[in-house]
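Hi team,

Below is the intake form for CNTP4 protein from Cepphus grylle. Please confirm the fields before the structure is written into the shared record.

FORM ID: S-0412
PROTEIN: CNTP4 protein
ORGANISM: Cepphus grylle
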Amino acid sequence: GAGGWSPLVSNKYQWLQIDLGERTEITAVATQGGYGSSDWVTSYFLMFSDSGQNWKQYRQEESIWAFSGNTNADSVVYYKLQHSIKARFLRFVPLDWNLNGRIGMRIEVYGCTYRSEVVGFDGKSCLIYTFNQKLMSALKDVISLKFKTMQSDGILLHREGQNGDHITLELIKGKLSLLINLGDTKTHPSNAQINMTLGSLLDDQHWHSVLIEHFNNQVNFTVDKHTHHFHAKGEFSYLDLDYELSFGGIPAPGKSGTLSRRNFHGCFENIYYNGVNIIDLARRR
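The structure came back. Fields below:
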């Protein structure tokens, strides 16, 4: 009714779902109780989804976050999210409410349109980006992207050199593995490779973010806000790599000694290499 949302039965199985119409970056939420009533929610969970079927709970400080709600029907309780949510659907799930009333909520959602470039891979394809040597910075390489998939294995990123040097980002049994390999172990007898693994259960059909920063002999590997730092000896400053990157697979299968060699089946979003929007380039060219 006009006073807000109040379900017929007040129990912990009730929820209020909002369809924002498109993926939106949500930065804050606010709640009130039911207008002119003794109905208000004192704590709640927040869930979000792209499809309206596959849901994820908002987490903060490494745990599912229970939001503090209202103490009366009229005061507005505003909460700025510690990290924004990118989603089309939201669910407010009441946990507790006024003992002398029922579940009652009025809500406001704050945010803005989320701009993104998305590309789908069918497990048989890959996207190859060849770039101009003159545009390269010798000091730093930065690659960032988001991905979602239901497959537990697949190549996300590969770059190779003439002498067997290569960098491969691969999903293996739901975990991300970053392999940096110096192919010629005679020339580089020590620190012949770096193999870093981060994340788990990343094949859950939710978006996960990846950031790889390689400058001089320092490698930073970040998956969903968890970062692994690696400081190698000087050899890694001199990786001999071609001016070509492949996303979603390896163009010539079997060329490198990767573990599964399976092409990626799922979606990538906002692939950037040193500030270049790769998906946008692919669409326009």
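SUMMARY LINE: The chain is about 0% helix and 50% strand.

Thanks, M.
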